[in-house]
Amino acid sequence: MSEMTKTTLGGRFTFPGTSLTVQRIGYGAMQLAGPGVWGPPKDPDGAITVLREAVAAGVNHIDTADFYGPHITNQIIRQALHPYPTGLVIITKLGARRPPDKSWQPAISPQDLTEGVHDNLRNLGLDALDIVNYRAMGAIHGPAEGSIAEQVAALADHRRKGLIRHIGLSNVTAAQVAEAQAITDIVCVQNSYNLAQRHDDALIEDLARQGIPYVPFFPLGGFTPLQSSTLSDVAGRLGATPMKVALAWLLHRSPNILLIPGTSSVAHLRENLAAGQLTLSPQVLEELDGIAVTAEVAH
Ligand SMILES: NC(=O)c1ccc[n+]([C@@H]2O[C@H](COP(=O)([O-])OP(=O)(O)OC[C@H]3O[C@@H](n4cnc5c(N)ncnc54)[C@H](OP(=O)(O)O)[C@@H]3O)[C@@H](O)[C@H]2O)c1
Could you give the 3-state DSSP secondary structure of residue 68? Predict the structure, then answer.
C-alpha cells in the first residue's frame, strides 16, 4: 500500500474500547451476491477482483452478512482474501434469514442467533468474529421501537464464550442503542443514511460524543442510487462524479462516520475510494445540505 493511499482513505478510526483501527473508507460486500442479493454473482471472478483490489488499495474494513446470498458473499470473501491480512476487520450481522422464496425474515431467537454465529464462522473461515451487528428488522422505511434486549444479551453470551469479539447494532433507534448499552459495550451503529435521507442526524451527534462510529448503509442511495440536480451540478463544478461527492459529503458530515459503499465494479470501487481526497468547501457543504431539505419537502 502506498503512503498516499494510506493517508487518503479518509484517515483512521479506532472502534471504542477495542484494538481495531480502520480506514474511514471501507467496503460493503452486499453487491457481490447475485441479483436481489440472492445466489452467486454473474461474474464470480469480478467479485474476487473487487475484494482483492479494495484490500490492495488499503481498505481494512469489510461489511458483510451470511444472509447475503445466503452464504455466498461470505464464501466469496473467504475465497478472495483468506488467510486474511493482519489488520483486516470483517464486520457481519445477525438477525435475518433468507428462505427459498428469497424474502428477508427475522432470525432473532437465541437458537437462530447461535446458528448465525456458526454460519458466519464457517463461511468466513474464522475462529472468532471481530464485530457482529445485531440487525433489528424494523419497519419497511427504517427502524421500529421495541426491545432488543434478549438478542443483545444472546450476543453478549457469545462474546463471553469468545466467538464474538465486539458487538454493534444496525437498523436501530436511539432508545434501542441506550437499551443495548445497558447490557454490553456497543462499538458501532449501522443505519440507513445519506445526503437525501437524514433521519439520524441527532443520533450521529450523540454517538460522536461517545466516540462510537456511525456507519451509514445505503450511502449512495442503495437499490435506488441517489439522483439530485444539485448533486450533479456540484459534481460538475468540482470535476468529480456525483457518487464521489456524496461519499465526500458523508466524510465531512461527522468525524465518526465510516463508509462502506457497495459495488461489484472495480471502476466504481476506485471512484469511491478516491472520495477521501475530495475537500468540500463550507459553501458547497451548505448547498449539499439543502438536498435533504428538498427531499423532505418532496416527500
Ligand atoms: N444493515 C443493513 O441493514 C444494511 C442494508 C443494506 C446494506 N448494508 C451494507 O451497506 C453496504 C452499502 O449499501 P449498498 O451496497 O446497499 O448501497 P450503496 O453503497 O448506497 O449503493 C450501491 C449501489 O450503487 C452503485 N454504485 C456504487 N458505487 C458507484 C459509483 N461510484 N458510481 C455509480 N454507481 C455506484 C452500485 O452498483 P455497482 O455494483 O454497479 O457499482 C449499487 O447499485 C452494503 O454493501 C452492505 O454491506 C447494510
Answer: coil
DSSP 118-139: HHHHHHHT-SSEEEEEEE---B
Domains defined along the chain, listed by start: 3-222+255-263 (3.20.20.100)
Q: Tell me: the pLDDT tens digits for 132-190?
A: 999 999 877 889 999 999 999 999 999 999 999 999 999 999 999 999 999 999 999 99
Which residues approach ligand 1 with their CB closer than 6 A?
28-31, 63, 93, 135, 170-171, 190, 217-222, 225, 243, 260-265, 268, 271-272
The Cα–Cα gap between 118 and 260 comes to 24
Whether 232 and 246 have beta carbons less than 8 Å apart is answered as no
Burial 5-23, CB ≥16 within 10 A → b, else e: beebbbeebebbeeebebb
Tell me the DSSP string of 9-64.
SS-EEE-TTSS-EEESB-EEGGGGSSGGGBSS-S-HHHHHHHHHHHHHTT--EEE-
Instruction: Determine the distance separating the centroid of ligand 1 and the alpha carbon of 150, expressed in angstroms.
Output: 30
Interval between CA 74 and ligand 1 midpoint (Å)? 16
Q: Is 84 a catalytic residue?
A: no
What pLDDT, in 10s, does the model give residues 218-255? 999 998 899 999 999 999 999 999 999 999 999 999 99
In the reported structure, the alpha carbon of residue 37 is separated from the centroid of ligand 1 by a whole-number distance in angstroms of: 11
- Contact by Cβ (8 Å): 89, 20: yes
User: What is the number of the ligand 1 atom nearest to the C-alpha of 64?
Assistant: 47
Q: In the numeric block, which cell numbers belong to residue 19?
A: 484494538
